[in-house]
Amino acid sequence: MSDELDTLKRHSHPFVELSAGEYRASISTFGGGLRSLEYSGKPLVVSYPEGAYPPLSSGIVLAPWPNRTADGVFAHDGVLHRLDITEPARATAIHGFVGQMAWHVADQGEDFVALELSTGLRQGWPWPLYMRVTWALDANEGLRATFAVRNTGDASCPFGLGWHPYLSALGAPLDDCVLHLSADANLPLDSVRNLPAGPEIPACWVLPDLETGQRMAGVWLDHCFGPMPEGHRSFGCLGSAIKASDAADGYADARLINPDGEGVRLWAGEGFEWFQVFTADPARREGYPGVGRALAVEPMTCPPDALRSGKNLIRLDAGEQYSFECGISFASCEKDFL
Q1: Average pLDDT score, the chain
Q2: CB atoms closer than 10 angstroms to residue 283
Q3: What's the DSSP call for residue 125?
Q4: pLDDT bracket for residue 214 (50, 70, 90)
Q5: What Gene3D superfamilies does its record include (predicted)?
Q6: CA distances from 58 to 89, 260, 274, 289, 292 (A)
Q7: Is residue 246 predicted with pLDDT exceeding 80?
Q8: Distances (CA, A) of 20 to 106, 268, 332
Q9: How many domains does one find in the chain?
């Protein structure tokens, strides 16, 4: 698998190293995202070599929409817009475009860095945006990301945000780990284009062991999880051990735990209603370079195809600004969960 790492494309955009207590992080200015995160020298995310472009969207910021837009076509205020198709096999526009742009360092210190960019006008996206993300380490709390977006144009625009980390339970093989996810519902996706294909169903119909923790051995996912619509919360089954309605600290929550009862916690604050959970897998010709099987847990403010459906889509008026937070920390069952 080391040969796979050697074939990754390289760039010259800088990386910024952060440290606080037992935590160490590396931030890529290309894509604005997280390259690596360690606790006591062990990984909390699956990393990639410094100087490489992020493989499989690893760690990048997903905006101004996360996930897929069918045919790259959507309407806003009665006007049709056509985005570049960036996933030709499925004829979709995927994950926005700021994750494929170079961000600039606006401020930094030993334990934080603030990156910013102005998007200008893009194909199918005639609304300029200013975005800023601050990555900050805390010796006790781990990594916190604060995202801010402002519409710098003179007309309203749609907006959605996501983040694409691959979680690692201190380096344990994925098949040895257990996933805990705060989700009441699964949004079914079609098997060809991975676009919404029906109303929400109970999450445990897809992952039946969510209540006690889903063992990941042999499990492949490219599924969307989130809240059950009002009036349907009691429909189906008992639900997850950490439900979307009562996750720790009021945040959406995902944890990947190794056989020693230790691992990683991802939390997502107000506005992040959805998770896309994706398994990179060489058996499906899409393994994570140098690792093979790896699990992405992607917090999103809206589900797939939201530019077309409008579901949880944010409307940014001219000059309006929104902010969001999420983060990653070390987790142990004894301390944090069971």
Answers
A1: 92
A2: 11
A3: B
A4: very high
A5: 2.70.98.10
A6: 20, 26, 18, 11, 14
A7: no
A8: 20, 21, 19
A9: 1
**47-50: long-range contacts, CB 8 A cutoff, minimum separation 24:** 48/5, 48/8, 48/289, 48/290, 49/5, 49/8, 50/15, 50/26
**The domain that contains 13 carries what CATH number?**
2.70.98.10
Cis peptide bond prior to 64, omega within 30° of 0: yes
Range of the domain at 197: 2-337
Q: Where are the beta strands (DSSP E) in 66-176?
A: 68-70, 73-76, 79-82, 92-94, 104-109, 112-118, 129-138, 142-151, 157-159, 162-163, 166-167
> What is the pTM (predicted TM-score) of this model?
0.92
CA distances from 9 to 50, 53, 94, 163, 299 (A): 11, 6, 20, 21, 26
